[in-house]
Structure formats: structure tokens, C-alpha cells
Amino acid sequence: MFSNDLELFDVCDESGDATGETVTRAEAHSRGILHRTAHVWIIDGGNILLQKRSKTKDSYPGLLDISSAGHVDAGDDLIGSALRELKEELGISASPDELEFAGFRRAFYRGEFYGKPFLDNEIAAVYAYRNAVDIKKLVLQTSEVEAVIWEDFYEVLSRVRSGDKRYCIYEDELLMIEKFVGGNCRG
């Protein structure tokens, strides 16, 4: 079910720098080893694009999530990983200057999926992408993304704050991208 269990991640220190050690995705999530991810929020005025995660994902299957997100593979950089995930998951070819850096988010989650412990210990580089996107023209990576929808930013924030179980989004990350909401798309 999880074809990406052999992905390799750089182990990183608390400042997000690679330590020189690598681990598999499975090991990172079973032992809670600190690693990096890249998150891209697609924003159109007051709306954000959310992806519905594939039901076969190893974590948060079928839930609404960040527009595009993924792990940083061993040896890769943050912006390159963000751009790769946009292309792989949604079919969007973007350039580095189209991503606006929102900051870093430190996160830890302890839970269980499919009867196995899941420890997510990560530092995420968070970006905003404010070019016009027609969701009818997106090419979804069905192994990762079941569907995409536009939702009002403040409605999502309210639902996340109230604990709506349809989302696997964190309030603090929404607050990081709030400064990009409300402006016009650049495209």
C-alpha cells in the first residue's frame, strides 16, 4: 500500500540542518526522528486550495490538507522539494521566484494509523503560491491526492480551531499564511 517506504530523509538538528545521517521514511515515522518537509499553500484572494489526501496514504488518509506538501528527500533542498511536490501532486510547474517564504514550522505528532504507531517529528518550510490556478486543469497524482477544492481561508481557520476532524491542518500554520490571504493573485 505504501510504495514510498524506501524514501530516504536527512536527519536534521533543531535548526533544520542535515546531520549527515539518513533514515528511511518508515524509520523516521516509527521512531520520531526529526526530518524536513516543504509545504505550499495555493492562495487566491481569500480562498485556499486544499487537497483531499488519497485513502491509501500512510497518514491522515482521506482528510483535507495543505495544497501541496511533502518530505525533503536526502540531499535535496527545501525550495526544490516544494517545487517538486507542486509538480508531482498537482501538475503545477512553478519557478522559485513564484514561491513566497512564510517561515518555518516545528511540529510533532504522535498517533496511530492502520494499527501502527506514527510519530511525525518535522521542521516544515512553509511557502505561499499566489498565481492563478484553475483546478479543472490540474493533473492530480492519484496515489497522493484524491481531489482538490477551494475553501474560504477564514472558514477553514474556524473549522480547524473547532477541531473539525475532516482536516489534518494545524492552526499555527494557517496563521503563518494569513498574511498572504486577501491579496489578488499575481497571475
Can you give a write-up of this model?
The protein is of the alpha+beta class and 187 residues long. It has 4 helices and 9 strands. It has helices spanning 25-31, 78-90, 153-161, 171-177; strands spanning 8-12, 18-24, 35-44, 47-53, 64-65, 68-71, 99-113, 116-129, 145-152. The strands form 2 sheets. Strands 3, 4, 5, 6, 7, 8 and 9 form a 7-stranded mixed β-sheet that branches. The longest helix has 13 residues, at 78-90. The model has no long low-confidence stretch (mean pLDDT 90).
Overview in brief:
With 187 residues, the chain is of the alpha+beta class. It has helices at 25-31, 78-90, 153-161, 171-177, and strands at 8-12, 18-24, 35-44, 47-53, 64-65, 68-71, 99-113, 116-129, 145-152. Strand 3 and strand 4 (47-53) form a beta hairpin.
Features:
globular, 7-stranded mixed beta sheet, alpha+beta, single chain
Topology:
Elements: E1 8-12, E2 18-24, H1 25-31, E3 35-44, E4 47-53, E5 64-65, E6 68-71, H2 78-90, E7 99-113, E8 116-129, E9 145-152, H3 153-161, H4 171-177
Mean pLDDT: 90
Give, in order, the helices and strands: EEHEEEEHEEEHH
Low-confidence stretches: none
The number of distinct β-strands equals 9
Largest sheet: 7 strands, mixed
Q: Structural class per helix/strand content?
A: alpha+beta
Q: Helix proportion of residues, in percent?
A: 10-25%
| Alpha-carbon Rg, integer | 16 Å
Shape: globular
The tally of helices reads: 4
Task: Note the gap between the termini.
Answer: 38 Å
What proportion strand? 35-45%
